[in-house]
Structures are given as C-alpha cells and as structure tokens.
UniProtKB/TrEMBL annotation, chain A:
Family annotation (Pfam families): CRCB
Superkingdom of the organism of origin: Bacteria
Membrane-topology descriptor: Multi-pass membrane protein
Statement: the UniProt record of this protein carries the keyword Metal-binding: yes
Annotated family: Belongs to the fluoride channel Fluc/FEX (TC 1.A.43) family.
Organism the protein comes from: Brachybacterium endophyticum
This protein's name: Fluoride-specific ion channel FluC
Amino acid sequence: MTVLLAILALLAVGVGCGLGAVARWGIHEGFSKLVSSRGSSSILVEVVPWPTVIANVLACFVLGIVVTRIGAEPTGSLRYLFLLLGAGLCGGMSTLAGAARDVVQLARRGTPVLAVGYLLVTVAVGMGALWVGVLVTQGTGATGGA
Amino acid sequence: MEALSLSAEEEDTETLSSGPALPALSWQRTALLIAAGGAVGGVLRELITLAMPTISTPTLIELPRGTLLVNVLGCVGLGLLTGLLEKRPDLPRWMRPLLGIGLLEGFTIYSGLVLEGSAMIGAGFPALAFMYGAITAFGAVFGVVLGIGLASLIHRRTVRRRPRRTGSVAATGGVSVMGADTPAEVEPHRTLSSSTPSETPEEER
C-alpha cells in the first residue's frame, strides 16, 4: 500500500512537471511569435531572455496561490494535490538551469552587466511574485489550509 | 515541378507556424517530447529531494541540500547539452526538446528555491536565505560554465579520435554559417546556439 502511494506521489509530480514544461515551452513560443509579429527592435526585447523570466515569475505566483490554499506541508489527499501543482506544475514551469544558461549566454555575448542584472532581478522578482500570489489569495479570503 | 514548388512552400509555412525554435519537428511531437522529458525530470527531482530530507522548523532550518544538488546537477547537464549542441549541429533534433527543455530544465526548480528562501525569511533567517540564494546562483552559473567546458573537452577528444567524421561535421556546420544569405539554412544553427527569438523580424524584413 505504501509503495502504491509512493508511486502515486511520483506520478503526480511527473504529470505536473510534464505539463509545466510544456507550458514553459508554450510561453517561449508565444513570446517569440508576439515579438516577430510586432517587429520590435528595442535592445531590451532583443537581448534579455524574457520567456524564462515570465515562466519563472508565473510559476512563483502560482506557487504562492497553491501554498496559501493548501499549505506548504499538507497531509492526506491534499498532499498529492500539492505534489501535482507545487513540485510538479510550478517546478516544471520554473527553471533554474534555463536562467543560469541565459546568464552565461548573456556574458558570452559580451553583456556581462546585463547578465549580473538578470541574475539579481530573477531572484528578487521571483520572491516578489510568490508573495504577491500569497497576498492575492489571502486578500480574496479564500484561505483553506494551514 | 509544380508539385515540388508547392511542397517547398508548405514546408516554409510549417517552419513559420511552429516558431523559430524547432523548424524540423512538428509542434505536437515537440510538445510530447517536452512533456516526457519534463515528467522524467520531475520524478528524478522528487526522488533526490526525498532521499535527502532536511529539517525546516521555525527554530531550526537546514540548508536544503537536495534542492541545491538538483539545481547544480541540472545546470551542469544543461551546460553540457548546450555546449554539445553548439559544437555538433548534426546531433538529432529531438535532443533539445527532450533532454534540454524537458528533462534538464524541468529537473531544476526555481520555484522551490524561492519558496525555501521565503520560508527562511519568514522564520527569521534572512542571512541564511541570502546565503542559500547566493550559493545556488554561484553554483548554477558555475555549473553551466563547467558543463560548456566539459562539452568542448569531449568535442575535442572525439575530433582527435575520429578525425574523418567530425571533420565533415565541422564542414557542414561551417557551410550553414557561411551561407547566411539564405535564412532557411541559418535557422537551425541559430536555434542550437540559442536563444534570441527576436532575431526573426529583421530577417523577414
């Protein structure tokens, strides 16, 4: 029985993470299309890898909502929902490796200042997005757990 | 001849509609590859996190070693993959969506890092949170650099071992770069060397 439950937990993470990864790719594709259709040529749009930032911020925002609604360490069946949405969906949508790769590529292209700025902004903005998610959920008075 | 030209046009529109990222694979296949890679990455991450539990109570918080290990490992892996794909444009097209976007980028977790950092701050350990963030950031960037370095090392070794095959590879890579006046040929190369999506409009104009 415990083995089955463990497999169920892993399955929840796997399904959520797969969905999250596809969502992240969708954001990337959508952003590329938007930029190419608008034909923008601003340096901030050209150089900064916005899709990764958007995906990471969105994931942190959603995680804030999830944590507020069902708590960071829920028990029982809520635990699987948290694994599906928190560790799975948000974990798959957010990516540290992608951000680190972007930083290194920025530095390699000869924009080290942008690279360091991107790193700092990524850390700060992610934490901000998490708190906004928490506050928004608390503001609507929909706190369910913990 | 008419049929030929038509099919060429169709190929062009397909390339455009699937976005500049992956001209060779249909978007359905790409999405499936990413989903599969992401699922495997997520399960691996969960297993590592379960195998390395850390205490986090309001009075005592340990450095989340599991998350840190996952993130640094994933960054080394992604750096390795990025470097290899840059050096070897002949590698199969499914590698980037399955291993890169899916497996490795899904394996590493930024939201978990942010959540743990926020929990540390909430519990009154802002210095620890800052330290954790700094270690992860340094480890991640260093990991990618290490991965890219490893990739070029591996590439150099394979070149030495099999001079004929990789020589032809280098030649095709060079052609695709030099023939930069035909956008269709540049596209895959640009994709592999990632990742300014906004280069497209200039070429279209």
